[in-house]
Specification:
Helix content is 37%, strand content 23%. By secondary structure, the protein is of the alpha+beta class. Helix 2 packs parallel to helix 9. The chain is globular.
Length: 238
């Protein structure tokens, strides 16, 4: 019996190694996005719960690094998960891959690897975020988000900004301004995750899009932490 248990354990370990080796870089990045989200929510002074409950989409860019100087330099790749439904009032849906580029981000985070988390707080600007490149602070308003359990969602930042942004570096978690950077769908990366060409708008708007195995952790973390959209707009539509 003991030999069978040892053999079974070895097979399970081997399967896990093969699975990890078979993942492409975008699938690994999607898995890492879920891990970052879980770790951030485990920080004592993290994203206020009532803000996360009001968010329509969450975007995570793990291990962002300054790769080059100048406008147009690529800084981060990650994943976005949105609530389903026409007005983003349903359960969390399948992830779409995204890219963050250019602007002044490099001067703010320097050469350190930094995790970035963005909350999309309302419908304004969502169509452009899904279909094309958006300049933060121009096409869509952005502000550094408040942190801590006592921070209220009824702040001026939440009331005015379409996107709230956060950073985690060297164990420090805080709001960060990303004005001047651009956010765009990374459809090539999504194709590598799903195994076929697919656009961000199809993933987010298509309620039947299956959540890939590598994105399940990300979605589960959001479902556990903020299963319902508790914004005033969502409450009025129930």
């Amino acid at each position: 019996m003991k030999k069978y248990l040892v053999a079974a354990a070895c097979l399970t370990l081997a399967a896990g190694v093969v699975y990890a080796q078979d993942l492409n870089k975008e699938q690994k990045r999607l898995e890492e996005s879920g891990t970052v989200m879980q770790e951030v929510l485990n920080i004592p002074d993290n994203i206020p719960h009532d803000l996360l409950e009001k968010a329509e989409c969450v975007i995570v860019f793990p291990s962002v690094k300054k790769l080059a100087f100048g406008i147009g330099a690529e800084y981060g790749r990650g994943a976005m998960v949105c609530r389903t439904g026409e007005k983003f009032r349903g359960p969390w849906g399948a992830p779409a891959m995204y890219a963050l580029e250019g602007g002044s981000l490099g001067f703010q985070i320097g050469g350190e690897a930094t995790d970035l988390i963005l909350l999309v707080m309302n419908d304004r600007g969502m169509d452009s975020i899904l279909s094309s490149k958006v300049k933060l602070g121009g096409d869509a308003s952005v502000a550094g988000g408040p942190v801590g359990r006592d921070a209220s969602a009824d702040t001026d930042a939440w009331m005015r900004a379409e996107i709230l942004s956060y950073s985690r570096s060297r164990g420090l978690f805080a709001g960060i301004s990303l004005e001047g950077t651009t956010l765009r769908p990374d459809d090539d990366a999504s194709a590598l995750v799903y195994g076929h060409p697919i656009k961000a708008s199809e993933i987010v708007r298509g309620e039947k899009t299956h959540v890939p195995a590598t994105g399940r952790h990300f979605v589960d973390v959001l479902e556990k932490s903020a299963p319902h959209n508790d914004s005033k707009e969502a409450a009025s539509n129930r």
